[in-house]
Amino acid sequence: MTEPVIEVIAIGNAIVDVMAPCHDDLIERLGLTRGGMTLIDTDQARALYAEMGPAREVSGGSAANTLAGLAALGVRCAFIGQVADDQLGKVFAHDIRAGGVAFATPQRAGEPPTGCCLILVSPDGQRTMNTYLGASQYLPPAALDERQIAAAKVLYLEGYLWDPEEPRAAMRRAIAAAREASREVAFTLSDAFVIARHGDDFRALIDAGQIDILFANHVELAALTGCKDFDDGIAALRDRVSTLVVTRSARGAVAVRGGEQAFVAAEPVERVVDTTGAGDLFAAGFLFGHVNRRPLGDCLKLGAVCAAEIISHYGARPEADLRALTQPFA
Asked: CATH no. for residue 153?
């Protein structure tokens, strides 16, 4: 088998986070839910974007956040995701490439525009998020480079993108390409609402041996297994995937691989500022350890360290030097 050129390749939503400070009277005037997250359509996105002041624009999306963390740790990464041929599409492509992630998915002409999360930041730091999925929901199977997927050590898939038909078909095709090349497939369940809609698909993939590494939080574990008790949920899945990783917020995380089970406590942080992206960066730290063949407990520790860095500031991209933070455990 050829030695992988890329260590982790991911498929996910290609979204640009657009963050701008605002006063609460703007949120009230626009009828938004302060501190909440709302899905919006094209017209709403354009109207809200026009109302925003000077903004910071950073490429985002769950799997893209994970790759940003991996690239910061020195892992060779590539991303597959759909943007439109527009301003935000160019922002996404430039930003993710500048972070060290290979990105070659062709831009999509016409409507809808590139997906974005329009974030209004109140004076007290509260974030009001308005998510427009846009072009990211139209990733076709034809956009895949199957040779690149076959050349990666791990294929990482984002559950959020399983909902729309085109990217779901693309991910099935990507799984087939990875399995044919004897590569590993990692899957993050993303959210309980995704499991409510597609849990049967996920359970079928697991039962067919298509998932090697499964990431979940404790809520998603319960939704997937139907087990209210955490330990029962672990028991229900531990023999069905090669590696199971379950986070429990402030209660740390558990991983199971074969007959081995490991636990890590949550890393202490001076102040939890923003939990956005905590799971994404936990996955980054864990996969960093995994591709470098670290023991299971070390992989969990690396995940906890990366997650702690993210929740200590606003935004889902690392600001501190992850290599320096993880060096004692890498």
From this structure: 3.40.1190.20
8 Å CB contact between 113 and 136: no
As a whole number, mean pLDDT of residues 307-316 equals 81
Give the Cα separation of 187 and 189 in Å (integer): 6
Q: φ, ψ for residue 65 (rounded to 5)?
A: -60, -40
Number of domains in the chain: 1
Judge whether 330 and 292 are in contact, CB under 8 Å: yes
- What is the percent of the chain with per-residue pLDDT over 90, rounded to a whole number? 64
Its domain, for residue 318, covers: 6-13+62-107+139-329
Confirm whether 194 is domain-assigned: yes
Judge whether 127 lies within some domain.
Answer: no
When pLDDT is averaged across residues 26-49 and rounded to a whole number, the result is 86
Average predicted confidence (pLDDT) for the chain: 91
Cα angle 5-294-304, degrees, rounded to a multiple of 5: 105
Sequence-distant (≥ 6) Cβ neighbours of residue 286 within 8 angstroms: 215, 245, 255, 299, 300, 302, 303
Q: Supply the DSSP string of 122-170, one letter for each residue.
A: -TTS-EEEEEE-GGGGG--GGG--HHHHHTEEEEEEEGGGGSSHHHHHH
pLDDT of 180 reads 95
228: left (phi over 0), alpha (psi -120 to 50) or beta: alpha
Cβ–Cβ under 8 Å, residues 273 and 125: yes
In a domain, 156, yes or no: yes
Q: How many residues does the chain have?
A: 330
Identify the pLDDT of residue 3: 58
- Tell me, yes or no, whether 57 lies in a domain: no
Give the contacts of 29 (CB within 8 A, at least 6 positions apart): none
How many whole angstroms separate alpha carbon 43 and alpha carbon 142? Answer: 28
Q: Which residues contact 210 (CB under 8 A, 6 or more apart)?
A: 175, 179, 185
pLDDT at 2: 55
